[in-house]
Design brief:
The protein is mainly alpha-helical. The chain has one domain. The protein is built from 7 helices and 2 strands, in the order ααββααααα. The longest helix is centred in the N-terminal third of the chain and has 19 residues. The protein is globular. The relative contact order is 0.21.
Length: 156
């Protein structure tokens, strides 16, 4: 199994790539891009991109380590001077595709998308929309749900 990537390296890549495309990410949008990076890696590669689990917070999936890393920015654009990390070509290609597909969406649109998808709904287990939760979003559920969307499940 290939080495896992540090969540901070994925964040840094997404921040740098988005900035190069003219988009300054907020913590909310970064969280959703991190989530889709992990979800689609699970679906297409059958393995996690990183070990840390997402939690089903009010505003969608959150990776706690990266939320806390950037929480001082609150709702403002993340303007920290981060450098592009060294990643394998396969990870870089995967993350570029995530930015291609999801990067043009607003943070709110991405939040609404996650709220309509099985992994977040299952982790929330019917909690009211405004109820706090630290429930873990299952990697297996993420893998299976997004694989079903990709058509990969029909190949295996």
């Amino acid at each position: 199994m290939p080495d896992l990537v540090a969540p901070s390296a994925v964040s840094d890549f997404l921040l740098v790539e988005s900035r190069e495309r003219g988009d300054l990410l907020t913590n909310l949008k970064l969280q959703k891009l991190l989530y889709y990076s992990q979800a689609w890696h699970l679906a297409l590669q059958n393995q996690p991109l990183f070990n840390e689990d997402f939690q089903a917070w009010i505003h969608g999936p959150v990776l706690p380590s990266q939320y806390h890393r950037f929480k001082d920015a609150e709702w403002r654009a993340l303007t920290l001077d981060v450098q592009a990390p060294t990643l394998t070509m396969s990870v870089k290609d995967h993350l570029l595709e995530i930015v291609d597909v999801f990067g043009s969406e607003s943070a709110v649109a991405l939040e609404l998308m996650t709220h309509q998808e099985q992994p977040w709904i299952e982790a929330r287990k019917g909690l009211p929309a405004d109820a706090p939760s630290s429930a873990v979003i299952s990697k297996a559920t993420m893998r299976d749900y997004y694989r079903s969307l990709s058509g990969e499940d029909k190949k295996n």
